[in-house]
Predict the 3D structure of the following.
Amino acid sequence: MPWPGGPAVEKIIVMTNSFRVDRILGDRPFAEIGEPALAVEDERRGLLAVAGTRGPVADVQEFGISTPVGVYGTGDLACRALLRTGYRVHALAFHPELPLLAVGTGDYDGGYFFEGQLLLLDWETGGVTSLIEPGLGRQVLGLEWLSAQELRVLMAPPDDWHDKDAWNEGHVAVVRRPDWRAVPPQSVTAHDLAGPRVAAPRTESREDARRMVSGLSTDWDPRRNVRAVEELPDGRIVATLDGFQLESWLPSGRRQWAVRDDGAGGRDIVVAADGRSVWVALARPSWEERAQAVLRLALQDGAQLGHITPSSPTSLVRCADGLPALAPVGQHEGRNRLRIRRGSRIYFREITRETRKTRDKGRREPGAREVWLVAAELGSVPVAERPREPKKEEAHRLFPYSWKPGETHFAGPGAETADGDLIHAGTVHHGRGLQPGGSFVVRRMVADAEPKWVFRTDHKATDLDCDTETAYVTYKDGEVVALALHDGSVRWRRHLTVAGVPVMPTALTVPEPGRLLIGTADGRLLDCSTD
């Protein structure tokens, strides 16, 4: 099995005739989990269940990433099944006979309630059943199978209202079912979960989990969230990810070097024109006091050669002439971050609020908010190859960002086509979260606000790139979609898997026609080909 620093191994995982994963960089044991937080072993069946930690708030907002739970063979370390939950995981318990894993989750909502789920993972089929009836969510702290039919459940109190002992006590109940593999979803009721008050100290299991995982393999590595990936002319691959400004992989498959970051890690990458260095924009959540930094790193060893502090939060983009530029993203980075690759201009989404005169002695007051697609010309080559950063007076409005009156569109990744059109992804904002069909990819002429075509789906895009004929889009639900560039029709769409286990793509680049480089939420780099 190939791990970082180990020998190169080319692994073929055939998904369809249209798409395949040819090589995996950054593979290692327990890749799906990241940092282990809880582990439980079934010695008789040679299995280990491991729950990871939930990512930082910035990651959850960007990718919607939640807590992973995987079931692994202790002999081959292969992942048998994987689930993700929006809560922290507090308890895991293998059924004594059936291929089932009970999973207890939950969190405090920050003001009143203890919320959570009781899940049942069938590690043979990968199916997941949420057991507790709607509206009753309870934080599950402990699980124990008393028999093949009886599951002991330890829960936090429903809330801490006038309950000073709610954080160290709970309730225990024994739930009985004749066949747990046939239990319907949401069928565990309040009556099932009624039980006496007992001591329920909250314990920390991370050190034990790390020890169990390390006992099976010392090669595990909690890599997470590849944000950008690019191929260099010499065949090396560079990537940004959580905790690292940049890393470089040799064509042999060995990691050449990596530069750690004391913050969230790198985000955008643009190779400098000299071919010997690269610009990297670091990810900095809006609530951090530190200003965003854009670094120039040597491709030989990752040494820092330069440092820029932009005047405001920006995306680093590669323009049509190959040089880097800084596109403003404003205060609300998650919804405002338009990143157009290979643009003949620097594009960004701008929110304005017009002022209007009142009858009160000419006083002016804020008017309606407007959202525009704005562009700045590239102009002359920047001094010392520093990334272009457009001044306010250089930018001009093209047209309203939303082509549908009354509909608010949030920004996403995109690219400029060879004939100057824009293809970009985004989401429709309704104030109620992402609704069905609320995620879009659109092709628009810069000279005309009307779209040539629109493709809609239910999940947010994580990245987008294109070649001369096809736009490729990756999504938070793990899907990769290939769209015909001329009319937006679907050429193919597939959910991304590695060794049969679903993975979430977080970064995408098309280095050449028929080839994709995909970064994943679990820190792997997939070198893929399409027919």
